Amino acid sequence: MIVVTGATGNVGQPLVRALVEAGEEVTAIARKPIEVPGARFQQADLADPASLDLHGADALFLLTPPDFLAHGDIEDVLAVVRESSVKRVVLLSSQGVATNRHPSNLEDAVRQSGLEWTILRPGNFGSNALQWADMVRTRRVIEAPFADIALPTVDPMDIAQVAAVVLTQPGHGGNHYTLTGPAPISPRQQAAAIGDALGEPVRVVELTRAQARERMLAVMPEPVVDATLDILGAPTADEQQVNPDVASVLGRPARPFAEWAARTVAAFR
Description:
38% helix; seven-stranded parallel sheet; two-stranded parallel sheet
């Protein structure tokens, strides 16, 4: 059995679907009740490791919520994992750990856990564009900082499919995979792709860093906001580089942002 934490998210939902379609027995974990066709649901919170029931599980997809470092303890979570039948842990981390933008606490703990581990390090998510959904629906505009700085945005579906392979197939233990899209794309280019999917142009209003920071602080902790803005505004060469790991694991090219926009266009109508 495979346990998927963060089962309501942009990666967790398609991962659960992919595993169920592959015939795997799946337990989907989330903090709030959800319907999970084909899978068992368990309501639990990683900040309260005692709420986790890993009975009968062989593998765990570990996705911590944004507020976990402030309210949770990864060592307590891993202690529960070690006491269970789980032998393999796949951690959804961040490319920012490799580029020293984000703390390495979670990765360090998983590597030292004594369990078989694989670490996935996605870059900027294509689904981050959903932050513009309301303004695109109502005004056909996006408001974003650094409108012409491009990053190789990754489709969450690709992250989920890489995770499904790593969770179900041998040979991935001890590996770090950096997951990016097939080409760098800027917010202005993302707006054009969304406009193409809609069949109507989408205008871009460029925010200052200070304006973007004020908005982001409403939904993210301050250190995460500042690190994210650093990546968006002054990416390193590594952060702008297309990585081949998605293609290597899946045996096909990574999906472009335009494909994500076409698949998700209903959110912007």
